[in-house]
Amino acid sequence: MFGQKVEEVNTLKDRQLLEEKEHEMTLTMTGDSLESAVGNLFQMMRKQIFEEIGHPIIQMETRAVYFENVKLKKETERFLFLFMPRERVYFTITARIIVKVKYLNITKEDF
């Protein structure tokens, strides 16, 4: 339509694009509960894998999780330094995670 040019790219035809590798990383995250800290840890893991792989990811499967360090920090907060004390709990988790990643081995340069 209106000056658009459609071009067929045969450089990828009949080429196996799916690749698989294991990726290991160590991450540290904090949360106000154990569930929150673990959720933040896996959210950061996914983000980091997308950045490091640099290809379209098809599937990620966690193979192993090792908690290397778990810290629990308790603080007592008070309103106006005197009233209504409440205890706040923070978890800091350092974990080593091994993930199997399946991705398509293509880049923009292939086109």
3D structure, described in words:
The protein has 111 residues and is an alpha+beta fold. Helix content is 18%, strand content 53%. It has one helix spanning 34-53, and strands at 18-31, 57-79, 83-104. Strands 1-3-2 form a three-stranded antiparallel sheet. It starts with 17 loop residues before the first strand and ends in a 7-residue tail after the last strand.
Provide keyphrases for this structure.
three-stranded antiparallel beta sheet, alpha+beta, 111 residues, single chain
List segments where confidence is low: pLDDT < 50 over at least 5 consecutive residues. none
Mean pLDDT: 87
Mind summarizing the main beta sheet? 3 strands, antiparallel
Kindly state the number of beta strands: 3
Q: Whole-number radius of gyration?
A: 23 Å
Main sheet: which strands, in order across? 1-3-2
Task: Spell out the helices and strands N to C.
Answer: EHEE
End-to-end span in angstroms?
Answer: 22 Å
Shape: elongated
The proportion of residues forming helix, as a percent range, comes to 10-25%
Class from helix and strand fractions: alpha+beta
Strand content: over 45%
- Number of helical stretches of at least 4 residues: 1
